[in-house]
Amino acid sequence: MIGHLAARLTRKSRSNFYYAFLALPRRRRAALYAVYAFCRTVDDIADLGGERGSHCADQRRELERWRRDVALCYEPGGRPADPIASGLAQAVRAFAIPRDALLAIIDGVEMDLDQVRYETAEDLYPYCYRVASAVGLCCIEIFGYTDPRAREYAIKLGTSVPTPAPGVSTCRRRISGSSA
């Protein structure tokens, strides 16, 4: 049931992730759907909260609730009430998804409540680490890896700020004055 909810959310997002994940074994696919559903949900709290009439304080409270749910995912016998958090807990228990990475994702989307433009790539780095590298650090645990450099690669991939070009990353668009 919970896995189906996360899969539906992933499919409904109209991203290519849903189709890419179909090629994975069921257990890994369910875990990736859970991580994606978590990311999509917390990102929507920050990005769409204002559109829904939420105040910044309400959005922060909702993100804080997610921090508590993430903590429950790591507690023995912890059972988050939210179905998406419950699916995340299953993924955390099945794979070594780092707690710090999940919390960094929440911290990153919370940055959207305060600032959406950055003057320099150096200013942008913490945001990119939190919203991109941290996701990569979660995903490599689900995909599996044998070379410890995979962690370094996930971090570099998320924090790389490409030169302006069509289809640039979210992080690049956050630099003040970017036309991308």
Word description of this protein:
Helix content is 67%, strand content 0%. The chain has 180 residues and is mainly α. The chain has a single domain, classed as Farnesyl Diphosphate Synthase (Orthogonal Bundle). Residues 165-169 and 175-180 have low confidence and may be disordered.
Low-confidence blocks of residues? 165-169, 175-180
| Residues in helices, as a percent range | 55-70%
CATH class: Mainly Alpha
From the 3D coordinates, which CATH architecture would you assign? Orthogonal Bundle
Structural class: mainly alpha
Terminal Cα separation, in Å?
A: 39 Å
Total count of helical runs of at least 4 residues: 9
Number of strands: 0
CATH superfamily: Farnesyl Diphosphate Synthase
Q: Under CATH, the topology is which?
A: Farnesyl Diphosphate Synthase
Shape, please?
A: globular
Which percent band covers the strand fraction? Answer: under 5%
Order of helices and strands: HHHHHHHHH
Radius of gyration: 16 Å
Average of pLDDT: 84
Main beta-sheet annotation: none
